[in-house]
Design a protein that fits this description.
The two termini are 23 Å apart. Strands 1, 2, 3, 4, 5, 6, 7 and 8 form an eight-stranded mixed β-sheet that branches. The longest helix has 21 residues. This protein has 16 helices and eight strands. The protein folds into three domains: 153 residues, no CATH class; 117 residues; 131 residues, Immunoglobulin-like, CATH 2.60.40. With 440 residues, it is α+β, with helices and mostly antiparallel strands.
Length: 440
């Protein structure tokens, strides 16, 4: 018997997706755009000590550069930029081994204000911080900010630096702005929300702490990888627990376990090549490439999904499915009758895919609402349900196993085996699923 899978409730998932993407689209042209701006940089998040001010007045720019800036360049760890950027941006991108070259490169990039050094754009970039900074990174940010503020104050008074005519390329990231924005952590979270969190209900029965007391008692707390109402913490846990393999994305346990490529106590939840598998894999592949800095140009970036989705607790069942289709991937796309236009909706309003249960001559699955990525149709997703009415079920069957062998293949007209019209109210819940007969 095909077992039910309840969708996990998660606070504002669709809204979070839209907010994250809107933030990325409105980002300024600075590499750190979108993060929380600091208070006046001149004063800094903390008041400068009298000794720091004295240092700026009494010590040469070169001495400050050698003692406080070069160590940032040669530090083994990433700078505080890593708190907002998965890759593509590091404070080291703004430093050269030579003070004169560093000053010239920053000046060429418009990052130093000669008249009002405390208003230098570089300081404003360093001072930006995420909404929830870590204590460790926040401390590093203060050190970096103080070091550069002190050096810039001294450097703009150094006649040798001002007179130098070094031919320097502007300082900054080596990748284009589009790649920098793609690697922003809020953009990564938006992708996680779209591709994984929207489908996390398929895993909730065993992996969500509000539902899995029995599994925890048997296997321990390690099975609870979902963090309630917190997609960022869930992503962090997936990475920390090595459920996402950044070196070999297709070998991630988040893919192997639900497809039964390795032992999974919860049984088979996904089929290689089905929609949820493609979404999980899409995120993991992109995360791995982004973290490794593999994108060199805008053309290398994966295009955004043309369609958004939202899992629901509305179930659909097909009866009288021929037993010969056992274990084949079957997909149902749901199209609504548009009374005002006298036609079926060109785009599907919902979809679901799963293997056929041949012994029971049935197929059943919860539906995910779908909508093209535009403001008008996204209202369908925020409603969280299908309105009652007349619908067309278009049924696709992967007889040739193309979805599994030709990833990321999507079923289409080649696999269409029939369609059926129904009138439905779409009640929620496994026990109230809507049923239709497989077309003959």
């Amino acid at each position: 018997m095909i077992r039910p899978m309840m969708a996990i409730g998660h606070r504002g998932s669709l809204a979070a997706v839209l907010v994250c993407f809107a933030s990325c689209q409105r980002a300024e042209e600075s590499p750190q755009a979108g993060a929380e701006p600091a208070a006046a940089v001149a004063e800094g998040p903390r008041a400068e000590s009298a000794s720091a001010v004295a240092e700026a007045n009494d010590v040469t720019a070169l001495a400050i550069f050698n003692r406080r800036i070069l160590p940032i360049l040669h530090a083994p760890n990433a700078s505080s930029c890593a708190e907002c950027h998965l890759s593509g941006v590091d404070l080291k991108d703004y430093i050269r081994d030579d003070q004169s070259q560093t000053f010239a490169a920053l000046w060429a990039a418009g990052l130093i204000d000669l008249e009002t050094p405390d208003d230098s754009k570089l300081l404003k970039l360093i001072a930006r911080r995420p909404d929830k900074p870590s204590l460790l990174t926040d401390a590093a940010r203060q050190e970096e900010l103080a070091a550069f503020r002190t050096w810039i104050r001294a450097a703009v008074r150094d006649e040798t630096l001002l007179a130098a005519n070094d031919a320097a390329a502007p300082a900054g990231p080596s990748v284009p702005l589009e790649v920098v924005r793609h690697a922003r952590r809020d953009r990564v979270l938006a992708s996680f929300l779209e591709n994984v969190w929207a489908e996390v209900g398929r895993c909730a029965a065993c992996h969500s702490p509000d539902r899995n007391a029995e599994q925890v008692a048997e296997h321990g707390e390690r099975v609870s990888w979902i963090v309630l109402d917190d997609p960022q913490a869930t992503l962090d846990h997936l990475l920390a627990a090595d459920l996402i393999d950044r070196a070999a994305p297709d070998q991630s346990l988040l893919l192997l376990k639900p497809t039964l490529a390795v032992e999974h106590g919860g049984g088979q939840k996904l089929v290689v090549g089905d929609r949820t598998y493609r979404q999980f894999r899409r995120f993991i592949d992109d995360y791995a490439a982004t973290a490794a800095g593999q994108y060199a140009a805008a053309v290398d970036l994966p295009p955004p999904l043309a369609e958004l989705s939202q899992a629901t607790d509305v179930w659909l069942k097909l009866t009288d499915v021929p037993a010969e289709f056992d274990k084949l991937l079957l997909q149902v796309d749901v199209h609504r009758w548009l009374e005002e236009k006298g036609q079926w909706s060109p785009a599907r309003w919902a979809t679901g895919d799963r293997q056929v249960y041949g012994a029971g001559n049935l197929w059943q699955q919860h539906l995910s609402l779908t909508a093209p990525r535009d403001a008008a149709t996204q209202r369908q997703l925020s409603a969280g349900r299908l309105p009652p009415g007349r619908y067309l079920l278009k049924i696709y069957l992967d007889r040739e196993g193309r979805a599994q062998s030709l990833y990321p293949y999507e079923l289409g007209e080649r696999e269409l085996v029939g369609q059926v019209e129904i009138d439905a109210t779409w009640p929620a819940g496994y026990g109230a699923m809507t049923a239709a007969a497989f077309p003959r």
